[in-house]
Write a structure and sequence with these properties.
- The chain is mostly helical.
- Helix content is 57%, strand content 4%.
- It contains two helices and two strands; from the N terminus they run H-E-E-H.
- Strands 1-2 form a two-stranded antiparallel ribbon.
- Strand 1 and strand 2 form a beta hairpin.
- 3% of the residues are buried.
Length: 102
């Protein structure tokens, strides 16, 4: 069973919806595309909205704090490992250029 939709009826529905959206945006106020949205950041762990000036960028929940500290430790270890392996790789190349291994 096919249902035929009148073009005029569909056009009126689309206009009604777009006008309602325009009115809603005007009522929200603000500037630009993000009218009515308060400036904020999001927690790096659970993504809840937090104050823009909050440092570190976590909500303050105990689980988020623990996870953030663990992430910082992991980042530090990865950074140390990267420099260690870079040193192990490049040191022999540089030293052989200066004739240390001859």
């Amino acid at each position: 069973m096919k249902v035929m939709v009148s073009k005029e009826k569909l056009k009126k529905q689309v206009e009604k919806t777009s006008n309602a959206l325009k009115d809603g945006v005007k009522k929200a106020g603000g500037k630009g595309r993000h009218k009515g949205v308060v400036v904020h950041k999001h927690c790096r762990i659970c993504h809840l909205p937090i104050d823009i000036k909050r440092e570190p960028e976590v909500c303050g929940d105990e689980a988020c704090d623990k996870k953030w500290l663990q992430n910082k430790k992991n980042e530090k270890m990865v950074r140390i490992a990267f420099f260690f392996f870079a040193l192990v790789f490049f040191a022999p190349l540089i030293l052989s250029r200066f004739g240390v291994f001859s």
